[in-house]
Structures are given as C-alpha cells and as structure tokens.
Amino acid sequence: MGTEAEKSKEEIRYLSQYFSVNGISDHSPIEKLNPTTTPDLRCLISGNIRYFEMSRMCSQDLSKHVKKRNSEAIWLDDQVERILDKKLTRKYEVSERVDLILYDIGLIALPPDVVVAKLNHAMKTRNPYPYTEIWYLAENAAHRINIER
Fold first, then answer.
1. How many domains, the chain?
2. Contact between 130 and 149 (Cβ < 8 Å)
3. In what order do the strands lie in the sheet containing 98-107?
4. N or C: which end of the chain has fewer CB within 10 A?
C-alpha cells in the first residue's frame, strides 16, 4: 500500500461500498480515526455510533509479484487465517459496537466462496474477539461471516 492518506481513502471507499451493497443509506460522513487505540473508521448509522476495523485481504506474495509485473509462475501461501488472526487480537478503547470488514482488492488467490468458507470455519475456534459482526466484501457483494458468542 502507499501512504497513510491513500490507505484512508481506500478504507473509506470500501466501507462506502459495504454500505451500498447492504442498503445502508442513513449514515453520517465517515471519519478516519487513530488506529492505534480505536478502530479505523467511525460514523453514525441511524443515529448510533458505529466503528469499523478495515482489513485488506491480500496475499503479500501476489502483491509483490504483481507490482514487479512478473509473468513467471508463483507459489502462494494462504493468507486468510493469518489476516483474520491478526485482527482478532486487537483491543479497542471504545464501548460502542465494532464491526470488522475484510475487503478483497483482487490480490488474494482464492475465490470469494472459498474465502467465506475458510473464514466461517476459522471463526468456529476463535474466541473471544472484539467484533459484533465480521463481513467479507468481494466482487461487489458483502458476505456475513458466522460468529458465535
């Protein structure tokens, strides 16, 4: 990824896409926060404060390969659980609801249905975690991940 400003724009763009796909229109402008103590983004939805932690689903190996414009074959590690586990360890200094949005920018080697199945399976053994809901956003669709409390 580029600069922090570029990352912020990307996160806001994907949260806006999540709102559009899920028919959420009653929201205030999205605010970028300090991600060291709070989730990435905040806004009001139907008058209630909502926080969103954003994470790009991306194979680092594939990203490097694409940046080099390399046409050779590449062996990729499965990054789904690594990315999820990293986010599940986060702690936030907020009392309101926090949702996790995992978004696909086309740099993960698995199709959305496989990623959703892997995330659903992984969440069966993960507890506790700081999120009310977890979503996977790919190919202009939002997939709710099954989480059990």
1. 1
2. no
3. 31-32, 41-45, 48-58, 98-107, 133-138, 141-145
4. C
Place of tokens 């360890």: 89
Q: Whole-model pTM?
A: 0.84
Name the least confident of 16-20, 42-46, 70-74: 70-74
DSSP code of residue 56:
E
Residue 85 host element (H or E): helix 80-88
- Domain with 125, as residue range(s), is 4-145
Please state whether beta strands 48-58 and 41-45 pair in parallel, antiparallel, or not at all (unpaired).
antiparallel
Q: What angle do CA 140, 141, 147 make, to 5 degrees?
A: 145
- Gap between the Cα atoms of 25 and 47, Å rounded: 12
What confidence tens digit (pLDDT) does each residue in 21-71 have? 999 999 999 999 987 789 999 999 999 999 999 999 875 544 444 445 555
